[in-house]
């Protein structure tokens, strides 16, 4: 009979300048874990450089392997276990499924989230060459970690995302200088509905921009627009008469093909804008008076405003259909539009559009208005591309073991209130996207095999290993 293997866990904690939280974390872990063999390894960054979470965790991993651990958990100190298992797994696991947060403090625990508390068997972590050492400051080292897992064929879970791609043609926008100029038929004294099926193909980052935003369509000025950004959120933005901005934003969505419907109720109380994706409501906002959107002569597909010197918001993707109705569609009609893939909108719902573009019908540089009302669009550097039918898209996400944690409050990092806490985080985001689109990305180029640092101290106190390290570039 084969003897059951005894596993040893290394709990690796990246640390700098939060002594009270470190003390409470160690007490919480010691009180919680009773039935497995483990060591806590605290790796403290002792230099003036920006914090480097990934590199500290790599250092802790080397120590964990040295003391005989066969699996590790990378654990932030602001996450206290409430109900979770720290037992061995032969696959990579993310351990946070529920998170209690203090009042006024929020954490976004989305499907692709791979930070906070993550379990790796030693052999799999070595297979992906560990964390990158190149993400200084806050953020994106965990996104890079997921990329390393995908690139090295690590077994991961997946989520299925609904897609709205049909077998046909679409108008393709290149993200640089292609657009469709359309006559502005919108009026804020009437109800109207906009429905469009489109794809996002590529996120282009700009080093001098705070964030990357791309417009699927836009009525320019104080833009009334449907946008997508480099945080992978869709949003519909409009402005009230008093120049205050209103914004309805979605959760994270991967690049792909979607149907978006925006309903404007101008003629009934309360006045309301609602935003729908694939027939499901994202959100809604009430307003008193909307900014006059009929002043602009044109609206645009594929860009925010091509005539601005900055922030033109060019889209890299394609538009299959774009329709406008002169009424507020109801929920059933919106659901039917959102579910439609291969039929003409004439066949889907009874109301008739007052403007109807289909990427299949481009004549010369003219995008034909199939409504019969003559609102043809003018194409600039737009190509037609074939589209393939697709109902779903698989997106890799980590396997999760059910786990409830208590988050401790601390200063927000990353992107808050429209800006980055430090610009280095924006640099990290740009670097991550470069790697994401790099077909030759190879995690063996750097990671555990290029781990350079100066160990200043390595000691054991109260059964906790403390390592102090000065990090070198």
Provide a compact summary of the structure:
The protein has 6 helices and 31 strands. It is mainly β and 473 residues long. The mean pLDDT is 93.
Shape: elongated
Structural class, from helix and strand content? Answer: mainly beta
Question: Could you tell me the strand content as a percent range?
Answer: 35-45%
CATH arch. level architecture of the largest domain: Sandwich
Main sheet summary: 16 strands, antiparallel
The number of domains: 2
Average predicted local confidence, pLDDT? 93
The share of residues in helices is 10-25%
Count the helices. How many?
6
The parts where pLDDT drops under 50 for at least 5 residues are none
What is the distance, rounded to the nearest whole angstrom, between the alpha carbons of the first and last residues? 50 Å
Rg, Cα atoms, Å: 26 Å
The CATH C-level class name of the largest domain: Mainly Beta
Any idea of the CATH topology of the largest domain? Jelly Rolls
Total strands: 31
Give a description of the structure.
This protein is mainly beta and 473 residues long. It has two domains: 8-156 and 398-471, Spore Coat Polysaccharide Biosynthesis Protein SpsA, Chain A (Alpha-Beta Complex); 164-393, Jelly Rolls. Helix content is 15%, strand content 41%. It has helices spanning 19-32, 53-66, 122-127, 141-151, 331-339, 423-437; strands at residues 8-15, 37-45, 71-75, 79-84, 93-94, 98-100, 117-121, 157-165, 168-174, 179-183, 192-200, 213-219, 224-229, 233-239, 245-252, 256-265, 271-277, 280-287, 298-301, 316-325, 355-363, 366-369, 377-380, 383-387, 390-397, 399-400, 403-407, 415-416, 419-420, 453-461, 464-471. The strands form five sheets. The chain has a 16-stranded antiparallel β-sheet that branches. A hairpin with a 2-residue loop joins strand 28 and strand 29. Helix 4 packs parallel to helix 6. It is elongated, with a radius of gyration of 26 Å. 40% of the residues are buried. The model has no long low-confidence stretch (mean pLDDT 93).
């Amino acid at each position: 009979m084969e003897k059951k293997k005894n596993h040893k866990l290394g709990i690796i904690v990246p640390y700098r300048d939060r002594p009270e939280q470190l003390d409470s974390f160690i007490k919480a872990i010691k009180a919680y874990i009773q039935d497995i063999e483990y060591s806590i390894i605290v790796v403290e960054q002792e230099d003036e450089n920006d914090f480097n979470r990934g590199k500290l965790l790599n250092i802790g991993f080397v120590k964990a392997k040295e003391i005989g651990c066969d699996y590790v958990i990378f654990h932030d100190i602001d996450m206290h276990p409430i109900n979770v298992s720290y037992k061995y797994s032969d696959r990579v696991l993310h351990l946070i499924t529920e998170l209690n947060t203090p009042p006024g403090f929020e954490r976004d625990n989305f499907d692709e989230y791979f930070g906070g508390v993550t379990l790796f068997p030693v052999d799999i972590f070595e297979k992906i060459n560990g964390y990158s050492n190149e993400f200084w400051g806050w953020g994106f080292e965990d996104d890079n970690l997921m990329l390393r897992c995908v690139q090295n064929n690590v077994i991961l879970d997946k989520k299925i995302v609904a897609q709205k791609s049909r077998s046909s043609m679409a108008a393709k926008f290149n993200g640089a200088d292609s657009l469709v100029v359309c006559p502005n038929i919108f009026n804020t004294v009437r109800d109207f509905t906009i429905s469009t099926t489109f794809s996002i193909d590529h996120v282009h980052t700009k080093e001098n921009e705070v964030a990357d935003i791309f417009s699927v369509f836009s009525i320019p000025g104080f833009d009334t627009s449907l946008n997508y950004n480099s945080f992978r959120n869709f949003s519909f933005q409009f402005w009230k008469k008093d120049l205050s901005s209103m914004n309805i934003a979605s959760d994270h969505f991967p690049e792909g093909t979607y149907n978006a419907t925006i309903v404007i109720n101008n003629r009934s109380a309360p006045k309301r804008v609602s935003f729908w994706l694939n027939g499901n409501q994202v959100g809604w906002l009430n307003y008193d008076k909307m900014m006059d959107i009929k002043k602009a002569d044109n609206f645009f597909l594929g860009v925010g405003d091509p005539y601005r010197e900055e922030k033109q918001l060019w889209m890299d993707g394609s538009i299959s259909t774009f329709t406008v109705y002169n009424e507020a569609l109801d929920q059933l009609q919106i659901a039917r539009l959102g579910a439609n893939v291969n039929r003409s909108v004439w066949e889907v719902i009874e109301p008739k559009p007052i403007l109807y573009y289909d990427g299949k019908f481009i004549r010369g540089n003219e995008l034909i208005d199939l409504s019969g009302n003559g609102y043809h669009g003018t194409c600039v550097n737009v190509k037609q591309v074939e589209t393939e039918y697709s109902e779903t898209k698989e997106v890799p996400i980590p396997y999760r073991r059910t786990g409830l944690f208590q988050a401790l409050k601390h200063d927000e990092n990353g992107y808050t209130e429209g800006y980055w806490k430090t610009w280095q985080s924006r640099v990290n985001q740009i670097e991550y996207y470069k790697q994401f689109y790099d077909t030759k990305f190879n995690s063996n180029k750097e990671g555990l095999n290029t781990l350079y640092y100066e160990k200043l101290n390595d000691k054991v106190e109260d059964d906790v290993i403390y390592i102090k390290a000065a990090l070198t570039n």
